[in-house]
Amino acid sequence: MKRVFGIILIVSVLAAASMYPAFWGVVIEDGETGQRLAFLNVRPDEEFKIKYIHSIHRTPVLETYHTNGEGTIIQTEMRFEEFGVGMPSGVTGTEIFTQKDGTYILSNMNRTFPSLDIRTGQIIADHTLLYDGHEYPFSSFSEKGSWVRIKTEKLNVWQWLNGGEKLG
Questions:
Q1: Which of 26, 75, 87, 113 is deepest in the core (most CB within 10 A)?
Q2: Who contacts 120 (Cβ-Cβ below 8 Å, separation ≥6)?
Q3: Entry pTM
Q4: pLDDT, tens only, 102-150
């Protein structure tokens, strides 16, 4: 009887522990349904980037982000080659605007977002997530032209094991 009770206790403790949110993740979910499509096991202050081809002037854009311990996404830099619709035209606060080798660099940014909503490109944009030296095309986990939401979330073991495609 004691053995059965011990086994039940151990299983109960393991089940409870698996529900404790222990892993920070950058989560990509379907913007319409909220279904988790993919996630990165990113700790606060680790950097990730999003690159794409601008749909109007058809030049590359690279945006750099990191997260903090409260779940906020912070944009720290943007690189682009042409001014136009959707591109910054100046700086605010302590931001620095420079140009190097034909690329405009807006750095020292501190723009915060609770989440990022992105409409993935159907033809040109080729949105790609960059993390830890690897590239993950959005088209590998979402339909072209779909709406995805990127946010940070603490994941438990169950979500980590079954919560969409694990990237990184």
A1: 26
A2: 127, 138, 139, 142, 143, 144, 145, 146, 147, 148
A3: 0.82
A4: 999 999 999 999 999 999 887 778 899 999 999 999 998 888 889 999 9
Residue 90's contacts (CB-CB under 8 Å, 6 or more residues apart) are 97
Distance CA 60, CA 126 (A): 10
Beta carbons within 10 angstroms of residue 12's beta carbon: 10
Tokens 């096991």, residue located: 41
* Burial group, residue 127, by CB count within 10 angstroms (0-12, 13-18, 19+): buried
Q: How far apart are CA 55 and CA 79, in angstroms?
A: 15
Closest C-alpha to 61, from 75, 49, 51: 51
DSSP 32-56: TT--EEEEE---TT-EEEEEEE-TT
Tell me how many degrees the CA angle 124-128-133 measures, rounded to the nearest 5: 145
**Which tokens in the block code for residue 147?**
């709406």
Percent helix / strand / coil, the chain, rounded to 5: 15, 45, 40
Dump pLDDT digits (tens) for 47-72.
999 999 987 888 999 999 999 888 89
**92 vs 6: CA distance, rounded Å:** 61
Q: Are 88 and 126 in contact (CB under 8 A)?
A: no
